[in-house]
Amino acid sequence: xxxxxxxxxxxxxxxxxxxGIHDQTTTNSDGIRSIPLRTHTLQQPxxxxxxxxxxxxxxxxxxxxxxxYIRLTSDRPSQAGWIFSRVPLTATNWEIELEFKIHGDGxxxxxxxxMWLTKQRATGGDVFGSTDRFEGLGIxxxxxxNNRPGTVFPYxxxxxxxxxxxxxxxxxxxxxxxxxxxARGIRNANTPTKAKLTYFQDKSLKLELQYKKEDQWELCFxxxxxxxxxSVAYLGFSGETGELSDNHDIISVATKNLYDTKSRPDNxxxxxxxxxxxxxxxxxxxxxxxxxxxxxxxxxxxFGLVGGSYVGYxxxxxxxxxxxxx
Length: 326
Fold this sequence. Notes:
Radius of gyration: 24 Å
Shape: globular
Distance between the termini: 25 Å
CATH architecture of the largest domain: Sandwich
Order of helices and strands: HEEEEEEEEEEEEEEEEEH
Largest sheet: 9 strands, antiparallel
Strand content: 25-35%
Number of strands: 17
Structural class: alpha+beta
């Protein structure tokens, strides 16, 4: 009777956990399903009970205030700080939504901060507080204009590093730029400032910014020919100040794995020569890998929870029997 009651309770608990996971999963009108990645997410209080982060390492001048922010640099000269994930982001398609704050008291300010998806991790340097000659993708939020005529600052720029080419700091990365946009008003903004980077392997890379009005996203850049990001790439953030300074704060990071659950039409058609010679391509098969992956994940989690609970219950019963002998 007790075992039956315990199994019922365990199954109920497992169902609740699975429902909780399912509630965090959303599918938009385009059929894109998103699943949160806890390993690449930062939210208050940022640290565990032992004052460490399970999924991120940090160093340099980074300060973590558990109820407010992760401060990469304070509003003081010659500061540099970083925070990097401990495990690589291996998802094929993903979305990273970052809330940040660039602010300070000075009329003149600098230098800026960066978001990284690179093979290198947790190494300080002189490219917005992280190492130069990186391999992967860097997104630079540059607030100080060195030598780039005709460009309005602050400027947000993407660079694709091959592990050999250095960042041209003297010219604000002009020769390194993959894509970018001006973002006047991103510093000391009156509304929460955010960046949303969305990547579909071999299909698209898009960066959107929010700084003018809440829930109003401005397209910074978008391409249907995205760069190849290393299969083992760590998510990180770093900031730097020189003679001029600012506070560079990370408020939150939400990373999601994306799955396309809808079938997409094949637009390739046929290369027929005369009028009426072309034919429609066959409909693409429904991409159900995301659905099946999520299904198996739920099944494994379910039985893992039930099995773990059973082992714990068995150990408890054994301990009880031994106690009764004395």
